[in-house]
Amino acid sequence: MPSTSWTWNASNCNTPAPSACGKSCANWAAACTHSATNANTAPPSATLPAPEAGLAAQLQHVWLDSGRSGLARLQDCSLTLAEGEVLALVGASGSGKSSLLALLAGELAATRGTVRALPSLGLPQQTALFSDTVRANLNLQQRALDDAALWAALELVGLKGAIAARPAGLDERLGEGGLGLSKGQGRRLALARLLLAQIPQTPLPGTGTGGAGTAGALWLLDEPTDGLDAATAQALLQRLAPTLRGRSVVLATHMRREAALADRLLLLEHGRITAQAVHGTAEFEALLARLRDG
Which InterPro entries match (predicted)? Predict the structure, then answer.
């Protein structure tokens, strides 16, 4: 797994520990917190100043001198994200993509400049799964979700068949870290959890039960198809594309297949924003061509 990963602060998770406590509770806490030695830890994203009307996020002349290992410095970065826009941050490993996501999540504070963002939901690179049932891993917030909603989310991420084939289905127990699932299956389970994480807004396919968050939520996705083979990833992205439409999303990726979903691309190099392009333009296609195929 690349070193440029980020995780949620516990206060940013808004997630109770799994029902089967003990060791898995300790893992939950570890998965949702940063080291206390991180001097740049900021308040959770819900406490970030709100952006201007019609925007989901704003960065104004932001600099970041991070003390966290693996997170690149950011230098004089400015951007705006309109509500309902999908923005892909592209660039090589270490270019600053995950640093920028951490700022938008409220996980790091800018050294200089201003960060404004709506409250966020995230899919970090590190997939946190616990020693509990599939059902409990999908519904960490212990909300009143019926089975139809859980199955619909699993179907959307292409995991329904694999879970349905297990003897206990949704009640199948997983080991620590998602033991019993492949890396790609664990990634898709975490994505399904994200789709179920907030107050329903629109129905998921195949059910009248709503799916992911409120219209005001900002989605932060870090390499969402990491660990999936090309065919599985492409099928997942095709199913996910309609769900992303109309949502405010910042997607960090070095993969062409993921960046192609964006309304706009933003290129980071050595902590600086060096180019951007709008979908449907020659510049957009040129930036896509620079990314890894997959």
Answer: AAA+_ATPase, ABC_transporter-like_ATP-bd, P-loop_NTPase, Type_1_exporter
Q: How does DSSP assign 48-71, residue by residue?
A: SPPPPTTEEEEEEEEEE---STTP
- 245, HSE (Cβ side, Cα atoms, 13 Å): 7
Higher-confidence residue of 12 and 51: namely 51
- pLDDT tens-place string over residues 228-247: 999 999 999 999 999 888 99
Do residues 191 and 222 lie in contact, with contact meaning Cβ atoms separated by under 8 Å? Answer: no
The residue type found at 205 is P
CA distance 86 to 43: 25
- Structural contact between residues 79 and 273, judged by C-beta atoms closer than 8 angstroms: yes
User: Domain 45-119+216-289 - what CATH class?
Assistant: alpha beta
The structural domains of the chain, with segments of one domain joined by +, span 10-36+125-195, 45-119+216-289
Asked if 156 and 204 touch (Cβ cutoff 8 Å), the reply is: yes
Distance CA 222, CA 217 (A): 16
Q: Find the Cα–Cα–Cα–Cα dihedral 51, 211, 33, 185, rounded to 10°.
A: -130
Buried/exposed code over 70-106 (b: 16+ C-beta within 10 A; e: otherwise) = ebbebbebebbbebebbbbbbbeebbbbbbbbbbbbb
Q: Which fold has domain 10-36+125-195?
A: Rossmann fold (3.40.50)
Distance between CA atoms of 24 and 204, rounded to whole angstroms?
Answer: 30
Residue 281 to residue 108: CA distance in whole angstroms: 33
Q: Do domains 10-36+125-195 and 45-119+216-289 have the same CATH topology?
A: yes
